[in-house]
Amino acid sequence: MNKRRIIPLLLCTLLFFTPWSSAKATVRPSLSGKLVFHRYSDYDAEDSKLYLYDFSKGSLTCLSKNMTGVRHAMNAMFSPDGTAITFMGISDEDQWDIYLYTFQDHILKNLTASDAGRHEDPKFSPDGKRICFKSCPEGKEYAQLYTYRLSTGKLTKLTHANTEHSMPYFSKTGKCIYYVRGDGKSSQIWKYKNGKNSRIYKRTNVECYYPIVAKSTGDVFFSRWYSADNHADQIYRYRPSTGKIKRLSFNNPDYDTSDYCEVSKNYGIVSSTKDGDTYDLFLVSVNGKKMTNLNTYYKEFNSGLQELGADYHE
User: How far apart are CA 127 and CA 137, in angstroms?
Assistant: First the structure.
């Protein structure tokens, strides 16, 4: 056989297979649900707005545009059936309150308007009947945990200790609540169940915050500093079934990664400063190192402002 004919044949073969192999390696997961998140220039600017992205339609909507009587809206969560969101925002009376917004009729309701104080961090129970949140009544120094029953408006106080309680999140079964106790470098991850509180995680002089429960597994994802000296936020996973806690592989001590929300058992969405000085939204593999900027799904996802507090509903 003529050797000169072998080389072109091999080159053609390589050219044919290489692009396909490369494309296969960079295939992104197909998403069809909805994502709610907030965007602001700076926290102190009080200009945060809520956005809804529909992956099935490829459309981005500013929810705050049609909301009156509230500003600086953030940290939204979908109801289990996806018909509503709860979030925190500042009322016309300059008070942080808990809100409920229903998509079909566009009704916005302030759930804590009659209770003077500071109310933050709302999260739905798995059955959608209650919302847990933190509240610091007027004149008090520390916030405590409460639940609000949607059918009756009944408020129930859960904690009473003389320290800060914040960022509650119901467990998969709804029988307990994970939350943050303390603040700053003294903060820890705790669990509330049947009137009793137990510590889940603590690191000396390391801030721990924002526990989120995966609907698929019941695992708890939370953020913490890389170390007492390096304050880059990293995401960890706590498995209640085994008690094991692990720093996830996509983290990097050179930038912040926080605000985990579950997309599926294998994927989540986070906020990270990986690509610059501002927080952008990324799709991450729970068991891998890959982080995919959500601009690959929609070019205006990440705007150069701070994109944070995402929640996904399928």
Answer: 27
Domain membership of residue 16 (yes or no) is no
Look up tokens 């104080």; give the residue: 117
Which two three-digit tokens encode residue 84?
A: 């509503």
Residue 15 maps to a domain = no
- Of the CA atoms within 13 Å of residue 243, those in its CB half-sphere come to 3
CB 46 within 8 A of CB 52: no
Q: Is residue 269 part of a domain?
A: yes
Those residues whose C-beta lies under 8 Å from the C-beta of residue 290, and which sit 6 or more positions away, are 250, 284
Does residue 41 lie within any of the structural domains?
Answer: no
For the domain that residue 139 is a member of, what is the CATH number? Answer: 2.120.10.30
What pLDDT sits at residue 115?
87
Tokens (6 digits) for 15: 């050219």
Single-letter residue type at 44: D
Percentages helix, strand, coil for the chain (3-state, rounded to 5) are 10, 45, 40
Secondary structure of residue 79 in the 3-state scheme:
coil
Q: What is the mean pLDDT of each run of 10 residues along the chain (314 residues)?
A: 43 40 58 98 98 98 96 99 99 98 97 94 99 95 97 97 98 98 98 98 98 98 99 99 98 98 98 97 96 96 97 98
| Amino acid identity for residue 215 in this structure | K
pLDDT digits (tens, 9 = 90+) for 238-271: 999 999 999 999 999 999 999 999 999 999 999 9
135 residue type, one letter:
S
Distance CA 103, CA 101 (A): 7
Total domain count, the chain? 1
Write the DSSP symbol of residue 202.
-
Instruction: Show the domain range for 224.
Output: 86-98+111-301
Place of tokens 């979908």: 78
